[in-house]
Design goal:
homotrimer; alpha+beta
């Protein structure tokens, strides 16, 4: 079984599937660029559709925040799939930076971002192992809750 | 005509020119570093000269914000030119992260950053195509309005 | 004398030493990942131990902030040492992004981060020369004062 099929089966076991059309760029840029074995992605978000809106600790609970982070991770996987036409080119995910729209007294950004990290670890297996940085944002563009910045790796 | 000359002509058609002296580092660091076909730049900003000061949605309007972003993009181009002595080493711009000093109720950071993206696209043509992430900052160092973080690519 | 020993002697001359156990990841991720001559690190911080807590300009003075930044730089060096079992694989530090938890009216983030940059420059010598970006954060995870995001380079 191809690795891409494994990825799809693992997603299915969670009742998740890739977005067939990742949201288009919100401006004068592109969804992804590839260079020298590294892939660069436009913002992967918890959705511009208003499903998750606002800051964790205010409008969004910790549990909802984790789900928002999982949604952003699914957006990231969808974009990688689109960029490489699957996951078989030895995809790696060396680093994930996660930005969490946060109430002023909310400090549990790492816990929120585990919603994304756990999805990457489960779905990609060893290839999903990543280092991570977490940030608190006062707000994010279009009131989104989570924005991920990922550089992925692939076999050229 | 060399690609570098094309770049200069396109800038000239907008009545813009590269900064002959990009602002020196504001601390104990260097303006750029090159490694393995990637170039790393110190902060590219809308200027420490006070031309643009403060947050979009407060002191700075959306239209001024776009101009500030264009100014930061010009700073970036100037630094790349300085690092590679021109643009002929197959310069690429795989990713642009843009940080916008923002009033608490301002959510149109992508629109602001289009001021930078459109300059890159127009001046560098296909080689300027980039993915992008946008962030809202409560403030930025020295009260600047826009800070870009760019890793560029070049032929070794 | 090996370069690794030189690094240790320079640290010792400042009465500093590497952390024997860098803080473990605060979530479902790894402390570092290596890919294609680049090393990616999990957040390097001024410590989750509460030694430095809160924002520069509020609970933390400018001088304490510089010390917090130096502490985060020591964390970074410790993680690089751990990732490469020393510093002899031609370590480079092309870029440092520094996030400073900041009071709303504090704009001297570059000065704070010089506490980190000066340690890198002194301890690693030429190989520590880096470009840098500085950001103001309203808060950082777990109330930490400084978070660094570094991609390092090494000989494969």
């Amino acid at each position: 079984m191809s690795y891409t099929r494994e990825v799809f089966q693992r997603l299915q076991s969670l009742s998740l599937k890739l977005l067939s059309n990742p949201p288009p760029p919100a401006g004068a840029y592109f969804g992804f660029r590839l260079h020298a074995g590294f892939g660069f992605l436009a913002a992967q978000t918890s959705g511009y559709d208003g499903r998750f809106t606002g800051a964790v600790g205010n409008e969004i609970s910790l549990e909802q925040g984790k789900l928002a982070a999982q949604t952003a991770a699914l957006d990231a996987l969808s974009r990688i799939h689109q960029a490489l036409s699957g996951f078989d080119r030895r995809v790696g995910l060396p680093h994930v930076a996660g930005h969490v729209a946060s109430a002023p007294d909310f400090f549990e950004q790492p816990e929120v971002l585990n919603g994304a990290s756990r999805l990457f670890n489960f779905v990609l297996g060893e290839r999903g192992r990543h280092s991570r940085t977490a940030y608190a944002a006062p707000q994010l563009p279009k009131r989104i809750t989570i924005e991920l910045e990922i550089t992925f790796a692939y076999r050229r």
